[in-house]
Specification:
Layout lengths: L5 H5 L6 E3 L8 E4 L5 E2 L5 E2 L2 E5 L5 E5 L17 E4 L5 E4 L3
Antiparallel strand pairs: 1-2, 3-5, 4-5, 5-6, 7-8
Length: about 100
Amino acid sequence: MLNITVAQAMDPTFHLPYYSQPSATSPVAGYASAQVAVKAPVHDVNGFDEAMFPNGGTVWIQASLLKDYHSLGDPTAKCVPVLMSNGRQGFDYPH
C-alpha cells in the first residue's frame, strides 16, 4: 500500500506516479491507487519497485512510497492481487 499521510490520502490533487521505466525521468504511465500490486519477490531497480498496472502492464513506483499492507479495522486481513472476471487486475482481502 502507499506510504502516505492521512492528509495526502484526503487531498484530491495529490497523485503518485507510476513510471514506464525505473527512473523518475521516464514517462509517467499513470497514477497509483491506495493499494499497489508489487511483483513478488520484490524487483527493485534504482530505488523503484516493479508493479502491475490495472491493465496488466508493467510499471515502476518509487520504493520509498510503499509499505506493507495493513488494515486497522481487520488486522488479520491480507491484500492479494487477483484477476477479476472482466480480465482486469483487482484485489482480494482474505484472512
